[in-house]
Specification:
The structure is a single chain. By secondary structure, the protein is an all-alpha fold. It folds into two domains: 70 residues, no CATH class; 31 residues. The protein is built from five helices and no strands. α2 runs antiparallel to α3 and α4 runs antiparallel to α5. The two termini are 39 Å apart.
Amino acid sequence: MAEAWGERALDTVAASDIEAMQRQAAATARSRRNSRSCRHAGEHVIAAARAIYNRAIADGLIDATASPAHRVVKPRRLPSIRRALMPDELEQINLAARTSGNDVILDALLLRLHTETAC
């Protein structure tokens, strides 16, 4: 934000400017295997803008109703894709650890520890 609007006063940034930065961040974010369509990059832009404007409001630099960051809607989070391992998946992992590797006893003990403690 400082790089894009460093010369501008806080009260001259519009909500549409923040939305444009949000779209740009989502479009240019690095996509990874577990990426969620770069939605979080855009969400982080809005969160950062809100944090800056919250400080400006707390310091009395702008009025609480003048914050453009609070007029931009944050995208909703998608439901998590994380899940527990199925019993057959866990058994396959344990079988591979017990039958291969340099120290199969230690590998089996470590997996047992993680299974029992739900790590």
